[in-house]
Amino acid sequence: MLKVALETFDRLRYKLPRKPRQIQIEITNRCNMDCHMCPREVLGIELEHMEWDTFAAVVDKLRDREDITLTGWGEPFLHPRIFDMIAYCKERGHKVMITSNGLFIRPTVPREIASSGLDAITFSVDSVSGHVEEGHTNNKVFENIETVARVRANGKLSLRLQSTLHAGREEDLYDVIRYGARIGCDIVNVGRLDRKYAPDLKRPDQAEEERIFNKADSLARSLGIQLDWLQYSVSSGLTRFFYRLLRKKLHQSGRYCLKTFNYAYVNRLGDVTPCCLLPRAKMGNVIEGDLEGIWRSDRFNHFRENYRQTCGSCDLWTVEMVDK
Q1: Under 8 Å between Cβ of 229 and 190
Q2: What is the value of pTM for the model shown?
Q3: CA geometry: angle at 254 spanning 296 and 324, to 5°?
């Protein structure tokens, strides 16, 4: 609890940690689904796997037991060495997480996940009815998700669902929460829809979004499942209470992006960027340099102070919604 209190105090002052605690590594940009809202084909990125030697070199530079997410703009379990990557990180004491679409290439993957030592897996699911054509949905994934839920040992693997809220589809979100509770998921996380690369998609306005959150939060609490929604509430217990109370102040009412406080993205070449959506905003290369030095560099600090110059009206990681 003391650690959380100290981090909260630092966030309120925007006093950066010595280095990022959350590292996302782009192990692949290849995918076996084609979601309309996904910008992977218009970001100007290579749709390739990360080479093993590059991956090992990146992880070898991370020496402080970081939280590592092995996910790029693709499906991680398409990488032929994904389980070697998990093992390599775990052997070095890191916490390892993955976000997947759940459409696995072979039926043995759920059991391989359960025995891999992975700490948390998040499945992207926007509907359990299959009615959301714009989002993550495929009937085959539910069998895979349920298998992972069934075979994970003693709850050591945290199981989460990730949904994106589309306008007029709030019932799909409630169904996802019910589904998650039924199969024993730990958390349902809700993300705000970014329409920068698909302006034809629709999302609720700020007032409607908050109304849906309140209803979804009430439902989640009644079912005993945690609902994380960056703009409103995350975590549990006292941490959740204080987050709800201080959420606007944690990024000084939009002066900073919430993501830039303790997170860095490492692409398939080892380049460090502030966000997965900014492939050309390169702060340095972790293989050639030092992550702490990159993190505290004038370039990165200038980005934090002036992120709107690069990010425009993006509001995925701010509390207040920016009209688009």
Answers
A1: yes
A2: 0.94
A3: 120
Alpha helices in 189-312 (DSSP H): 206-223, 237-246, 291-295, 298-305, 307-311
Other CB atoms within 10 A of residue 65 CB: 11
What single string gives the DSSP state of each residue in 129-189?
SS--TTSS--HHHHHHHHHHHHHSSTT-SEEEEEEEEPTT-HHHHHHHHHHHHHHT-SEEE
CA dist 233 and 244 (Å) reads 5
CA–CA separation, 290 and 118 (whole Å): 26
Q: Contacts for 232-241 with beta carbons within 8 Å, 24 or more apart?
A: 238/1, 238/4, 239/4
Of 196, 212, 221, 233, which Cα lies nearest the Cα of 319? 233
What one-character-per-residue DSSP string does 200-213 give? T-----HHHHHHHH
Own/partner pairs, 197-201, CB within 8 angstroms, 24+ separation: 197/37, 197/39, 197/42, 197/43, 198/36, 198/37, 198/39, 198/134, 199/324, 201/36, 201/37, 201/134, 201/166
Strands 271-273 and 284-285: antiparallel
The CA distance from 42 to 277, in Å, is: 11
Choose among 60, 68, 67, 75: nearest CA to 28: 75
Geometric angle at alpha carbon 159, from 191 and 170, rounded to 5°: 35
Alpha carbons 209 and 123: distance in angstroms, whole number = 22
Query: Model confidence over 51-107: pLDDT tens digits?
Result: 999 999 999 999 888 999 999 999 999 999 999 999 999 999 999 999 999 999 999
Which two three-digit tokens encode residue 140?
Answer: 């085959």
Rounded CA separation 121/259 (Å): 20
Average pLDDT over residues 192-206: 89
Q: What is the DSSP string of 90-135?
A: HHTT-EEEEEE-S--SSTTHHHHHHTTT--EEEEE-S-SSS--TTS
Report the SS3 class of residue 243. Answer: helix
